[in-house]
Amino acid sequence: MISVKDLHKSFGSFEVLKGINVEIKEKEVVCVIGPSGSGKSTFLRCLNLLEEVTSGDVLIEGDNLTDPKININDIRSRVGMVFQHFNLFPHKTVLENITIGPIKVKKMNKKEAEKVAVPLLEKVGLSDKADAYPESLSGGQKQRVAIARSLAMEPRIMLFDEPTSALDPELVGDVLEVMKELAHEGMTMVVVTHEMGFAREVGDRVLFMDEGIIMEEDVPANLFGNPQNPRTVEFLSKVL
Amino acid sequence: MEFITESHYYRVMPFLLEGLVWTLLITFVGLIIGFVLGAIFGFARLSKNKLIYGIATVYVEAVRGTPILAQILFIYFGLSDLMDVNIDKITASIIAIAINAGAYIAEIVRGAVYSIDKGQEEAGRSIGLTRNQTMRYIIWPQAFRRMIPPLGNQFVISLKDTSLFSVIAVGELLYMGQQYYGMTFQAFQALTMVCIMYLIITVPTAVYLRRVERRLDV
Q1: Which of A73, A79, A149 sits opposite B130 (nearest CB)?
Q2: Average pLDDT of span A78-106
Q3: How many helices (H) and strands (E) does chain A have?
Q4: Nearest to B126 among A50, A88, A152 (CB)
Q5: What are the pLDDT digits (tens) for B84-143?
Q6: CA–CA separation, B124 vs A77, rounded Å?
Q7: Which one has a higher pLDDT value, A77 or A107?
Q8: Nearest Cβ partner of A89 from B130, B138, B145?
Q9: pLDDT value for B80
Q10: Does the distance separating the beta carbons of B130 and A100 come in below 8 Å?
Q11: Count of A–B CB contacts within 8 Å?
């Protein structure tokens, strides 16, 4: 479903990604872990072209993102993204945050879009906040709205960029719960995270990234239980 | 001196009201055009295209680096001379305000758009909105809110700048005051009333803006 081949990404003369190769199957939940500065967020952002790819190929359901003729807006509507800092639209209500995608991209009318949005709000447990503005929500609530906003586009893939890193510890659980539910429903997910518990429990596979490459990848039980690469061992000893 | 004996404070008013109408007309029409110019050149200043950016930068710096008095004379006398036509005084005044305010508003627009968190654009683009849709529905509404206080400030500045057009004998507020004391020699009373007329517009605007600013702050 996602196929990344020899992906390189440089900012100026600084090479952040030094050749990433990975295949992600439909319904797979892949967690990406690694120290900060390892390139994991950059890798994730290359999957919907928020970062321009320097060289290599990124195929999403067979469409090569590096093809200059590709309709990137169409791809992005199929690939949802959840950000560390939520990035909700502060001038729009919760409901409007969720419906703007369906209305402007899918050309639904307001009623149709709300029919999509209301069950999603229920799913993330925020039905009572439909008419609230983002500033009145807690961090955890904001992130759940952001997830609902992405889901409203009915994406085939969801990307999560450290979705719980900006949250107070007691708010992390609600967000992870929603993500777990998504995983169980069979959503294809790529999750950059520091939540090792989540990676172990929900991930089908864990990628350990460092210095711009994937140092090690395995099912969680092996990667956490019996890491092979010394860098992985060192990293895990610090975070676990 | 017959100071308060005859109330020129009162007699000057019909002149000044007529002047005020022209002052407000020039300010409003000039600023509406100036806002359009400012939006266009403000976005041009955000452009990655070097030519577009360059043209906009030349415009902004040329206007901000020259006095508006020179600009009005340039438009009214300079351009008439060059093109061998007579530009109507009011038209020249409106053009001068538009071009002058346009440059300052361009910087207001640029700054406001630039101040919106990059994550907003990324969030918009990531749900599939095009670049233009993201600007129109996500960035611009937020940027516009931030532009209200500096735009109000520009309104006050441009309003006061119209007084300079008295040099080309536009019948705006200050010029009408001058006309009055030219006939009556009552400069103190006439100019006092002129200033009060300006203050009647500018002070409430400033108070209102401060209130808006405080509301946006929270």
Answers
A1: A73
A2: 95
A3: 9, 10
A4: A50
A5: 888 899 999 999 999 999 999 999 999 999 999 999 999 999 999 999 999 999 999 999
A6: 10
A7: A107
A8: B138
A9: 86
A10: no
A11: 61
Which residues of chain A have a CB within 8 Å of the CB of B130?
Answer: 73
Give the contacts of B10 (CB within 8 A, at least 6 positions apart): none
The model's pLDDT over A183-199, given as tens digits with 9 standing for 90+, comes to 999 999 999 999 999 99
Of A104, A149, A150, the CB nearest to B133: A104
Q: How far apart are CA A208 and CA A226, in angstroms?
A: 13
d(CA A8, CA A18): 5
pTM assigned to the model: 0.85
Sorted by sequence, the CB contacts under 8 Å of residue B105 that are 6+ apart come out as B34, B35, B37, B38, B39, B42, B151, B154
pLDDT band at A68 (very low <50, low <70, confident <90, very high): confident
Maximum pairwise Cα distance, chain A: 55
Has residue B7 got a pLDDT over 70? yes
With CB atoms and an 8 Å threshold, state whether B119 touches A105.
Answer: no
b/e burial code for range A33-67 (CB count within 10 A of at least 16 → b): bbbeebbbbbbbbbbbbbbebeebebbbeeeebbe
DSSP β-ladder status, A213-218 and A205-210: antiparallel
User: Which residue in this structure is represented by tokens 């039905």?
Assistant: A127
- One-letter amino acid for residue A198 of the chain: F
Chain A nearest CA to B121, separation (Å): 9
* Cα A197 to Cα A240: distance, rounded to the nearest angstrom: 9
- Tell me if chain B has a CB within 8 Å of the CB of A144: no
Which amino acid appears at position A18 of this protein?
K
Q: What is the pLDDT of residue B215?
A: 81
Cross-chain Cβ contact B128/A149 below 8 Å: no
In this structure, are residues A50 and A44 in contact, taking their beta carbons and an 8 Å threshold?
no
The alpha carbon of residue B136 is apart from the nearest alpha carbon of chain A, in Å, by: 11
Inspect the interface and report whether the beta carbons of A105 and B122 lie closer than 8 Å.
Answer: no
Which residue in the set B119, B125, B137 is minimally distant from A100, CB to CB? B137
How far apart CA A3 and CA A63 sit, in angstroms, is 10
| Lowest-pLDDT range of A19-23, A213-217, B211-215 | B211-215
Suggest the residue from B127, B131, B137 to mutate for an interface test with chain A (most A CBs closer than 10 A).
Answer: B127
Q: What is the pLDDT of residues A13-39, one digit of tens each?
A: 999 999 999 999 999 999 999 998 899
